[in-house]
Design a protein that fits this description.
Elements (H helix, E strand, L loop, with lengths): L12 E4 L6 H15 L3 E6 L5 H15 L2 E7 L2 H11 L3 E5 L8 E8 L11 H9 L13 E3 L3 H9 L11 E5 L5 H9 L5 E5 L21 H10 L3 E5 L6 E5 L4 E2 L1 H15 L4 E5 L5 H8 L3 E5 L3 H11 L3 E3 L5 E3 L8 H15 L3 H8 L3 E2 L3 E3 L4 H11 L4 E3 L4 E4 L3 E7 L6 E7 L2 H16 L1
Parallel strand pairs: 2-3, 2-4, 3-6, 7-8, 7-9, 12-13, 12-14
Antiparallel strand pairs: 1-5, 4-5, 9-10, 10-11, 14-15, 16-21, 17-21, 18-19, 19-20, 20-21
Helix pairs in contact: 1-2, 1-4, 5-6, 8-9, 8-11
Length: about 450
Amino acid sequence: MNFDQSIFKAYDIRGTYPEQVNSDIAYKIGLAMATYLKPKTIAVGHDMRLSSDELSQNLIRGINDFGADVVDLGLISTDGLYFAVGKFGYDGGVMITASHNPKQYNGFKICRNDAIPLSGQEGLQNIKQNIKDDSFSEKSPVRGNIIRKDILNDYASHCLSFIDLSNIKPFKIVIDAGNGMAGATLPPVLDKLPLIVKELYFDLDGSFPNHPASPIELENLKDLQKEIAKQKADFGVAFDGDADRMFLVDGMGHQVGGDMVTALVAKSLLSKNPNETVLYNLICSKAVPELILRMGGTPVRTKVGHALIKPLMKKKNAIFGGEHSGHFYFRDNWFADSGMIAFLVCLELLSVEDRPLHELIKEINPYFRSGEINYRVISISDTMNRVKSEFSNGEIDEEDGLTIQYDNFWFNLRPSNTEPLLRLNIEANGVNVLKDKTEQIVNIIKS
């Protein structure tokens, strides 16, 4: 079959609809995935994108033609799909979504049993090769069945089991669902909480009429920040399109980075479960491992990406893992990520500490950071070699891209796993050091 092979990424399958991702490729992915996993039962869910229902139907047709049964979860979040696969013991799962990408995109996130993700290193390349070679198992003489299942209430109960409901204070908060799947998964959870909630964009709408569902980008938080000020809310919460990522905004309107949320979740979990291991990716602030150590935990530094973090968490039996990008992984959630659980754990911490979010962050965060800065360059390798040469007297680590540390600052420069970009993150002990070093590194990148 002729298809655009570039849709197979490091962690998922993704492209524009209908040019790259369409009914034909969805059917083939269903058949090729079933040929690879040889499942009896696969769970399938989809987000609210305008093409998701069509892609879901054709993916299911491919799985059924293999002879496997499909549990059709309908409209669900990605973390809801992971929950279903783990909780009900399915042989795998597929979520039709393009996550935070613009509305013209769609794609597929695939996991095997126990919500273990397929990636470019394991599984996705096999599926791509099966499609290229038309190498499928023969269609079964008996097609698989479709079983429709609503898991929203089951998932809500699972997420709420991570906290003590009696601890929760009646905060006034604003939640921006971004017209994404949080608009469906949040209400059964919020019904059980004593919160005063102002809802923004809870209507499911794959045309994203208000703003892109990508809250890591500050411009997409403007409505949330305005509403926090208008409501005099304690804090705000934003979810991305498929609701597996969660971001906090404090009562002053400042975005809380994913690494600081990692620190907050770690603090809450370690206060109840001392001496546990917590993973954090190497883009996270030094404040994260420092807090883990103060709380009596064992910090473990990892590369970026869920396909790497989940297996390492399992190997280390880590209670929790966090990424700067807003992905938060929990041992008691089959080591899968969940924006919902992270939100609830932070909510409980804020309730127990009984202090504003910005005060909690100030207490654990003495450093200054650039945030992630992205660059398109002519040659990624040449650019990284120039930067490495310029800072050759620092402590160099090339575990994931290029990390160089000094006494008063450190930075990481690495190629994106999903786009043709270089990503730069810098952290310093002072604001002037941050400004000077950022300017110096940026000038090298652009030279």
